[in-house]
Amino acid sequence: MNNQFLADRIDGKGFAANLVDKLTEEVTEIKEQTGLIPGLAVVLVGEDPASGVYVSAKHRQTLAIGMQSFVHRLPADTTQAELMGLLDELNAAPEVNGILVQLPLPAHLDTNAVINAIDADKDVDGFHILNAGRLATGQDALVPCTPLGCLMMLKDRLGSLAGMNAVVVGKSNIVGKPMAQLLMAENCTVTVAHSKTRDVPALCRTADILVVAVGRPEMVKGDWIKPGAVVIDVGINRIERDGRSRIVGDVAYDEAGHASAITPVPGGVGPMTIACLLANTVTAFKRQHKIVTKKEAVAV
C-alpha cells in the first residue's frame, strides 16, 4: 500500500461482530417471548475440506448466539433420493427454521433440484427459485447472504443509495444477480457487467458504487475506479507471489486509494456471509411464527 492510499477501509469483520451481538440479543428476546429457540440445519455431502471448515464455522457461530444447530454429514455416494428424503424431513421438522445445503455438491447430484426441494420459507441461503422471484418482484424474500451483507455495509457507509450509479461486475445467481436486485430496490441506477460486456473499465468508471464478484484475482485496476466511489470486493482468491501464498480480492486493492471506501480481502465481505446466514435464520423463524421483535438486528 503506498503513502497516497486515502480510501477508508470498510471493516467487515467488525461490522459482522456487531451484527452477531445484535442477533444474540434478538434470539434472547425470541426465547423470552415464545419459549422457542430458532434452529438451523446444515447438510454436508462428501468430504470436501473447505466445505467441512465452513460447516464447522457455521455450527459454532449458530450455537454461540443461542440458536440450535443441526449438522447432517452425509457420505459422498449419497443418492439423490436419500438427500431429498432428508430435506423432506427437515422441511417438516418444527424445530428447524432454516435449512442450508453446503455447495458444491458431488457431481452426480442435481444441485438445482436439491435447492428447490428446500421449503422456500426455510431457504436461508436465498437460492430457491421462489425467493429469487420474490426478490425480483419486490416481495419479502430470504436474500442470499453475501449480497445482503454487501447491502448492509453500503447503507451503513452511505445512508440512502437512491439515485446513485451502481455497477455490479459478475452475474452469478449467488451474488451478481441478487446484488443488482437489491440495489435496484434501493433506487440505484444499476448496470451488470459480465464476460461479454464491451469496455468493462469504462463502465466501472461510471460507478458511484462498484461491487465486484467474478473470482479473478485483482482484475479491477485502480484506473477503473471513479474517484470517491465506494468499492465492495467480493472476490477471495489465493495467489502465489514472491514465493508466498496470499489471499487477494478481485480488485487491485493497493491501486484503489482514490476510492472513498473499500472492503479489504480478507476481512471485508467474507465475515458478513455467516453473520447474514444467522440473520436469515432469525428472519425465517419470525416469519414462520408471525412475530415481531423489539431488537431488530437487520433493518434493510
From TrEMBL:
CDD domains: NAD_bind_m-THF_DH_Cyclohyd (cd01080). NADP(+) binds at G170, K171, S172, I236. InterPro entries: Aminoacid_DH-like_N_sf, NAD(P)-bd_dom_sf, THF_DH/CycHdrlase, THF_DH/CycHdrlase_cat_dom, THF_DH/CycHdrlase_CS, THF_DH/CycHdrlase_NAD-bd_dom. Residues 10-125 form the Tetrahydrofolate dehydrogenase/cyclohydrolase catalytic domain. The keyword Acyltransferase does not apply. Pathway: One-carbon metabolism; tetrahydrofolate interconversion. GO terms for cellular component: cytosol. It holds the Pfam family THF_DHG_CYH_C. The keyword Cell cycle does not apply. One of its GO terms (molecular function) is methylenetetrahydrofolate dehydrogenase (NADP+) activity. Keywords: Amino-acid biosynthesis, Histidine biosynthesis, Hydrolase, Methionine biosynthesis, Multifunctional enzyme, NADP, One-carbon metabolism, Oxidoreductase, Purine biosynthesis. Its EC number is 1.5.1.5, 3.5.4.9. GO terms for biological process: L-histidine biosynthetic process; methionine biosynthetic process; purine nucleotide biosynthetic process; tetrahydrofolate interconversion. It catalyses: (6R)-5,10-methylene-5,6,7,8-tetrahydrofolate + NADP(+) = (6R)-5,10-methenyltetrahydrofolate + NADPH; (6R)-5,10-methenyltetrahydrofolate + H2O = (6R)-10-formyltetrahydrofolate + H(+). PROSITE patterns: THF_DHG_CYH_2. Residues 144-288 form the Tetrahydrofolate dehydrogenase/cyclohydrolase NAD(P)-binding domain. Catalyzes the oxidation of 5,10-methylenetetrahydrofolate to 5,10-methenyltetrahydrofolate and then the hydrolysis of 5,10-methenyltetrahydrofolate to 10-formyltetrahydrofolate. Belongs to the tetrahydrofolate dehydrogenase/cyclohydrolase family. Homodimer. This is Bifunctional protein FolD. The gene is folD.
